[in-house]
Structures are given as structure tokens and as C-alpha cells.
Design a protein that fits this description.
With 184 residues, the chain is an alpha+beta fold. It has one domain: Gcn5-related N-acetyltransferase (GNAT) (Aminopeptidase, 3-Layer(aba) Sandwich), CATH 3.40.630. It is 36% helix and 33% strand. It has six helices and seven strands. The chain has a seven-stranded mixed sheet with strand order 1-2-3-4-5-7-6, with helices on both faces. β4, α4 and β5 form a beta-alpha-beta unit. It is globular, with a radius of gyration of 16 Å. It starts with a strand and ends in a 6-residue tail after the last helix.
């Protein structure tokens, strides 16, 4: 089963290793932290910041990835999110789709958001497909928006509204439960 558990300070080492994995880093718009200490400071800042909330995605109780919501305290009730699957053995198995459903429940139910949005590198077909399956819609296209490894890359803006998730939630969760990825 896939679940989300709160980020804790002891996760910094794992996140540092995951962010340095080529298959994770290639899809991130920013560079990974240079040192374990820099990663620890980032994790500590996320934990202390009421504007952000982070979770470790678990699969069968084992850490598999990371999900972050940023902008939780803004007056517009919207937040940006990002996520990745760090464990290579968990990729391509529906872990990301399940984590998104659990994360959207937190965003809209726990935090009372109206909108969740994301920036996805335009050539990241897997992420675009996974987010569309959960109901995210394309809201924009930013040309040469992210400088990655010396090359400017295009970014797709995606978003989902609370009402859209409410309409899609039962269908998405049922499919995930039937696949034994989340509890019914």
C-alpha cells in the first residue's frame, strides 16, 4: 500500500541521495543541494515553515518518494506542489499516481485549498500523464523557463481545482484501490 508520512529531519540523507539520482534530477527544474548539510538545512526549513508541508511517499512501509506543497498560508487558498519517486524499484508501478491522490486529499481536505498547481518540464511525459490522470489540466506553457544543465527548457503549468478533484476523486481512488495501491 502507498501512504504519505510527515517529513522528519532524519529524512534529509535519503532526500539528498534521491535528488542526486540522475533519473530524479533530470526532471527537476532546480539543482540538487551541493552537500548533505545544505539538504538538512532545506528539510529543517520545510518542517519549520507553516507555508510548506512535506511528506515521504511510502510503498509497503518503505520510503519511495517525496511530495511537497508550498504556499499553504496565502490568502488565495492555492499551493504549488511537486513530487518525485526516488526509489528506482517504485517507479512505473503506480506509486506516483497513488501519492497524488493522497496528496490531493490532504491539499483540499486538510488544508482547505481551492487550487493546486504545478510546473512540469514539458518533455516529462510520465509526470504530465500521471497528473492528467488525477484531473490536472494544462493552464499554460512557459517557453525557455527553466535553465537545466546549461539548457533552457520549456515548462507546462498544470492545475486542479477543489471541485474538479471532488468530481474525479471517487473514480481515481476506486481504480487505485482495485490495484491494491491504496486502502479503499
Amino acid at each position: 500500500m502507498i501512504d504519505l508520512r510527515d517529513l522528519v529531519a532524519e529524512d534529509a540523507g535519503r532526500l539528498f541521495a534521491w535528488r542526486r539520482e540522475p533519473e530524479v534530477n533530470r526532471w527537476m527544474s532546480d539543482s540538487p543541494p551541493d552537500t548533505p548539510d545544505a539538504q538538512q538545512r532545506w528539510v529543517d526549513a520545510v518542517i519549520a515553515d507553516p507555508d510548506r508541508s512535506g511528506w515521504i511517499i511510502t510503498s509497503g512501509g518503505q520510503p519511495a518518494g517525496f511530495l511537497l506543497l508550498s504556499g499553504l498560508t496565502g490568502c488565495n487558498r492555492r499551493a504549488e506542489w511537486g513530487w518525485y519517486i526516488g526509489d528506482p524499484d517504485a517507479r512505473g508501478r503506480g506509486v506516483g499516481r497513488a501519492a497524488q491522490a493522497l496528496g490531493l486529499d490532504k491539499a483540499f481536505d486538510q488544508f482547505g485549498l481551492e487550487k493546486v498547481w504545478a510546473e512540469v518540464l514539458a518533455d516529462n511525459e510520465a509526470a504530465l500523464k500521471a497528473q492528467a490522470a488525477c484531473g490536472f489540466r494544462r493552464e499554460g506553457y512557459l517557453r525557455s523557463h527553466a535553465l537545466k544543465d546549461g539548457t533552457f527548457r520549456d515548462v507546462v503549468l498544470l492545475a486542479i481545482l477543489a471541485e474538479e478533484w471532488r468530481d474525479k476523486r471517487a473514480q481515481v481512488r476506486k481504480a487505485l484501490a482495485l490495484s491494491h495501491l491504496i486502502a479503499a
